[in-house]
Amino acid sequence: MTLFVFRLSAIELIFTDAIIQGSKSTIVPFKYYQSLIILNVKIQDQEGSFILDTGANGLVLNSKYFEADRLSSNSAYGLNGEISEVGRSKVREMMIDEIMFSNISAENIDLREIEEKKKLKILGLIGYNVIKDYEVMLNYRERYVTFSKLDKRGHIIEILDHTREKLDSFDFDIANFIPVIEVSINGKMKRMGIDTGAEINVIDNRRNRNILENFKVINRINIAGADGRSRQAIAGILFRVKLGNDYRCASMATMMTNMDSLNEIYGSTLDGIFGHSFLAPWIFSINYKKKRIYIHRIKYSRT
Fold it and tell me: Which residues of 213-222 are buried (b: 16+ CB within 10 A; e: fewer)?
């Protein structure tokens, strides 16, 4: 069996708002590493790789490198249930390119299992409560993220030219902290969480029996969560996914497993999680205040 690291988030945490200073709109290049968006982040006296993870609640620090101020009285949950030894700490200052955050509440989780599987030093995760005051534009093709600061109504304060060309938009809900959109799979409506920390799409094995004809089984695999525990899943290819009336997705690498633990985290009943294989072909923006996802026009260079 292949040992497959499914996702890096799926942690239920409670955060306070960060104080944000610096540029109103910033283009931040990222390292595209094994389907993940890796940002270079300076935090206190350290600098290194953080994963941009829209499926995480806020700032998560790897306890291998950051000592917690105290143990948390709240439980955290991953793919396989409760995670032990969760710490809490306060980050005085953090820099993502030109954006400075201060006084951020963080959770300290042991991420060494993920580091070993990915062969990459990972300082932590950047999630919802860090980025919720921004419109976040994801461009996997050119490997950059644009963070555009929002006013109270959700309008971009400082608009950069490349963020203007939006083809379409779709409403989303927020299940605790993860954006949730509706898609159709061969005409069946499904609620899917949007997670940049998911290397592969996931669908629930009990809620998706009516679309099995659109899921081609490839293999059975073991998947490991952040806690190092693993479970079995079915790996395959998902077909006939459609966003709105006009946007058909190519066939996508997907796995099917029990999502009870994830739905407990999100306080909702999701049919699945869409990650890299759904997001990467498009240019998306996520506006958390307006609860809108935008599709941008893709420009092709002529040679």
Answer: ebbeeeeebe
Q: Which residues contact 25 (CB under 8 A, 6 or more apart)?
A: 146, 147, 148, 149, 156, 157, 158, 159, 160, 163
Q: How far apart are CA 203 and CA 197, in angstroms?
A: 15
* Contact yes or no for 128/60 (Cβ under 8 A): no
- Other beta carbons within 10 angstroms of residue 10's beta carbon come to 30
Closest to 207 measured CA to CA, from 150, 132, 271: 271
Two structure tokens written together for 251: 């066939």
Mean pLDDT over 132-146 rounds to 96
Per-residue model confidence as pLDDT tens digits over 229-271: 667 889 999 999 999 999 999 999 999 999 998 898 899 999 9
The dihedral over CA atoms of 152, 153, 158, 160, expressed in degrees to the nearest 10, equals 140
The torsion angles phi and psi of 260, rounded to 5 degrees, stand at: -60, -45
Start-to-end CA span in the chain (Å): 44
With CA atoms as reference, report the closest residue to 193 among 262, 294, 113: 262
Instruction: Name residues whose C-beta falls within 8 Å of residue 245's C-beta, 6 or more positions apart in sequence.
Output: none
- Residue 238's nearest CA partner among 281, 193, 187, 186 is 186
Q: What share of the chain is helix, strand, coil (3-state, %, to 5)?
A: 10, 50, 40
CA distances from 22 to 96, 98, 141 (A): 10, 6, 27
Residues linked to residue 46 through DSSP beta bridges, in sequence order: 43
Token pair 């693993």: residue: 230
80 pLDDT more than 50: no
Is the pTM value of this prediction over 0.90? no
Q: What is the pLDDT of residues 275-291, one digit of tens each?
A: 999 999 999 999 999 99
CA torsion through residues 276, 279, 281, 284, sign: negative
